[in-house]
Design a protein that fits this description.
about 230 residues, mainly beta, 3 domains, five-stranded mixed sheet, 1 helix, KIB1-4 beta-propeller domain-containing protein, F-box_BR-signaling, KIB1-4_b-propeller
Length: about 230
C-alpha cells in the first residue's frame, strides 16, 4: 500500500503517501487535489486536520500537549491560500503525573455548522475508563488570536475524529445534542469503541464496539460520513 487515509469529509478523503505528500481524493470520481507541504517533525508532533467548505484546517501539536499551532488554508480559488495562523496555548498540567492524574489524550480542530473553529482537547486518566473534554472557540481580535472556553454546544454534536459538528435537535434522529462522539481503542483485543460524552453532565456512555482483524486495520479505523445528492 503506497497511500492511506488520514481523515474524510463527505465524499473526499485526505490522503498521505509513503513520501508524506498530502492530497485530497474524491472516493467516487477519483479526482485528486495535491496540497502544499506542511512542516513535519516525525516522532515529536501530531498532525490533525479537517476539511469543510473548501477550507483545510491544520492542527500541529506535540504529543505532550505543551505547544502547537493552527493553520487554515482556503481552496476556493485556483491557488491555495493560508488565511489564518495562530499558536495553541500549552498546558503544563499534563506534564506532571504526580500532581494531576489527568493526561491530554489528543487534540482536534472542529469546524461547527456555522463555520466557527473550535480547539478540542480530550483528557483521560491512565488505566481507567474516565474521559473528559475541554472545548475552546478560536477567533481573531485585532492583532491577537484568542481562545474562549465553551461550556455548551447547544443543538449541535461534535464528531471528534471527523473534526466537524452536526445538528442534533429533537427533530433529528441519531445524534444527541450537546454531546461529543469519539472513539477509544484497545490494542490488546484489537477493538475500537464508539463513545458518547455528554457535555452537560460530563459523563461518558459507551455505544458500539467493533472488532478489527489486525493492528493495522485498528490503527486506521476512521469515521466516514458520505454526502448524497439527488439529481
Amino acid at each position: 500500500m503506497t497511500s492511506y487515509c488520514l481523515a474524510s469529509y463527505g465524499n473526499w478523503l485526505f490522503m498521505v503517501d509513503c513520501w508524506y505528500n498530502l492530497y485530497l481524493l474524491n472516493l467516487f470520481t477519483h479526482e485528486r487535489i495535491d496540497l502544499p507541504p506542511v512542516e513535519s517533525q516525525i516522532g515529536t508532533t501530531k498532525l490533525e486536520r479537517t476539511l469543510k467548505d473548501h477550507k483545510l484546517y491544520y492542527l500541529l501539536n506535540d504529543y505532550r500537549g505543551s505547544s502547537g499551532f493552527i493553520k487554515i488554508f482556503d481552496f476556493s480559488g485556483e491557488v491555495p491560500q493560508e488565511t489564518f495562523q495562530c499558536g495553541v496555548p500549552g498546558n503544563s498540567s499534563s506534564l506532571d503525573p504526580i500532581r494531576n492524574s489527568w493526561r491530554i489524550a489528543g487534540a482536534q480542530l472542529v469546524v461547527t455548522v456555522t463555520g466557527d473553529v473550535l480547539y478540542v482537547e480530550s483528557w483521560a486518566r491512565p488505566f481507567t475508563l474516565l474521559w473528559s473534554f475541554r472545548v475552546y472557540k478560536v477567533y481573531s481580535s485585532g492583532f491577537f488570536n484568542k481562545f474562549e472556553q465553551v461550556d455548551s454546544l447547544g443543538n449541535e454534536a461534535i464528531l471528534f475524529d471527523l473534526g466537524i459538528t452536526v445538528l442534533a435537535n429533537d427533530d433529528i434522529v441519531g445524534f444527541k445534542r450537546n454531546s461529543i462522539y469519539f472513539k477509544t481503542t484497545c490494542h490488546e483485543k484489537n477493538t475500537t469503541q464508539i463513545c458518547l460524552f455528554n457535555f452537560e453532565t460530563q459523563e461518558m456512555e459507551p455505544l458500539h464496539k467493533f472488532h478489527c482483524s489486525s493492528q493495522q486495520q485498528l490503527a486506521r479505523a476512521l469515521w466516514f460520513l458520505p454526502s448524497f445528492k439527488q439529481t
